[in-house]
Amino acid sequence: xxxxxxxxxxxxxxxxxxxxxxxxxxxxxxxxxxxxxxxxxxxxxxxxxxxxxxxxxxxxxxxxxxxxxxxxxxxxxxxxxxxxxxxxxxxxxxxxxxxxxxxxxxxxxxxxxxxxxxxxxxxxxxxxxxxxxxxxxxxxxxxxxxxxxxxxxxxxxxxxxxxxxxxxxxxxxxxxxxxxxxxxxxxxxxxxxxxxxxxxxxxxxxxxxxxxxxxxxxxxxxxxxxxxxxxxxxxxxxxxxxxx
Length: 244
Description:
Helix 1 (about 45-55) crosses helix 2 (about 55-65), helix 5 (about 160-170) runs parallel beside helix 10 (about 225-240) and helix 7 (about 185-190) packs antiparallel against helix 10 (about 225-240). The mean pLDDT is about 90. The chain has 10 helices and 9 strands. It folds into 2 domains: about 5-40 and about 80-170, no CATH class; about 180-240, no CATH class. A hairpin with a 5-residue loop joins strand 7 and strand 8. The longest helix is centred in the last third of the chain and has 17 residues, at about 225-240. By secondary structure, the chain is of the alpha+beta class. It has helices at about 45-55, 55-65, 105-110, 150-155, 160-170, 175, 185-190, 195-205, 215-220, 225-240, and strands spanning about 10-15, 20, 65-70, 75-80, 95, 95-100, 115-120, 125-130, 145. It is globular.
């Protein structure tokens, strides 16, 4: 999604509304949306991409990622580095499409939808969706009508959304909302969510000790299950933020 997309091209979408969209080589603008974009990556995005490419998360970060600190502070933002080809192209786009399609990021799967999620003070989780009708995109005249649920199922988004929502406990932590600027240790833990291989080694070597309770099942899975490790890291950071 272009950051300067005009409001008239961002339409709220209710769960029961349908839309048409399909992207394939026969569409005139095929892969245009893979250029000139800022693609933020979540820890789960990095986990899936690195697995698909056969790389460790740390190696993937070194080769493909830019880490930036927002001017208004907060936690660092992690972006996929684009190719300097005059079009700021995604490093994984080819003439025939996405070369990492099975491991593509959640934002790519979600498009042409945009998803926002938040938790209210009463603890209830809410989400909203918009339809991003970018002027250059010809895909909106393609495909059969479908609703949000059908699109998310087709794009295998369930776990992407679930992991992003778990991260909300950190990004929308009450202290962050109150203006707390993450301290160096908190930033270090946050970035460890993107480098699970390093995080795992530190845990297994007892270099770090987590100040949270871990079930026997979690302890047994730490050495092999990246999803368990990622969820543990999110809990750890949430715990640290709450200790004030």
